[in-house]
Amino acid sequence: MKSPATDPVSTYLPRLAGSPIGGVTLEELASHRGAVPPFPPPTMARGLWGLLTNTDQLSGDQLDWVLDQAAAMPLFGGRGTVQYSNLGATLLGWALASAAEQPDWQTYVTTRLLTPLAMTHTRFAATRDQIPPDAPRGRLVGGRQAVQGVSPVYQPAGSSTWTTPEDIARYAQAILRGTAPGLPALDPRFAGEQAASPGDPRIGYHWFTLTVAGRTVQWHNGATAGYTSMLVIDRLAGRAVFVVGNSTRPVDPVAIRLLTGVADGPGSTDVPMPVIALAATTVALILIAGAGFAAYRARTRLQLVRATAGALLGLSLWRVAGPWDHAPGLLWILVAAATAANVMLGIARVRSRPWHRPRLAALSWAGAVLALAAAGLVLSMGLH
């Protein structure tokens, strides 16, 4: 069954009937012009927690729940403006599967794309046992190993796609030969609204078009926790480049430069330090400095214990969430060594002094226990 691009998505996903998102057309979803929010609000909140704790927050969402959430959501801004939406891509994938009378999106895309192109190593993990056993592990900003996400719902948005360079090469070659299913999706149809991107970005059905040094290329990138990727294609020159990385650093500029010889395009070669890493560093250094001063001023043993616990909290936070793909790890070692030296000097000063002041014992013990518990929590989050 062919699904006209102008059909509203509720035609194929009846649970969305009568809702603002249900009236968005398939074409608007495919071009990210439907004003669909990025994710349902509860998923957004859990996603933020997942970033902080390095845990998978998408695996629990089920299709009916996502559809009910979407049916209750208002549009996010005005239709007609490009605003990238993973929820929109998800709804489109399931709508296309429904239109093709397939039981799920994975069956649909396997029948439509993977089997015709012999992409036998590409899979979509709905559960952890579907992750390839030899899959490389991703890394987060601080060098931590990223949790490998899975999802039974968000697969059309690329939440848990596993593939190989060989399979992507088959796909790119089919595009260059003009034999890939859905080839018209690459054709630019609408003006893009990406002010940060140079050249002349435009969008087709999920594919972006960019002019770099007089050459017109089509591209799409991807990013999940600990992984980034970029496929860029110059159909006129008959060339394509695919770059994938197991870190959070974008590979877009690398792919653009490999294809065109120009360091230009989406993203930037000068990757800014992530906001979370900056915030964590600021908080951690304040904790470490404050604890160091408290250790220097300690007049009882318990005051020193509390200061040491605060320093451990700061050091733990900095180690787990600091910008260690931008800054040398030696910096953390030096600060930790200076902190340890300060604590040792404090031990020498208070060794013959009482454990606590009589009226402040409970408060001092509570502060020390809370700081140690917080440090343990931060470290446990970093060891996921």
TrEMBL record:
Segments traversing the membrane: 275-296, 303-321, 327-348, 360-383
Entry keyword set: Membrane, Transmembrane, Transmembrane helix
Domain Beta-lactamase-related, first and last residues per copy: 7-253
Any single Pfam family the record assigns to this protein: Beta-lactamase
Gene3D superfamilies the record matches: DD-peptidase/beta-lactamase superfamily
Top-level taxon of origin: Bacteria
Name recorded for this polypeptide: Beta-lactamase family protein
Organism: Candidatus Phosphoribacter hodrii
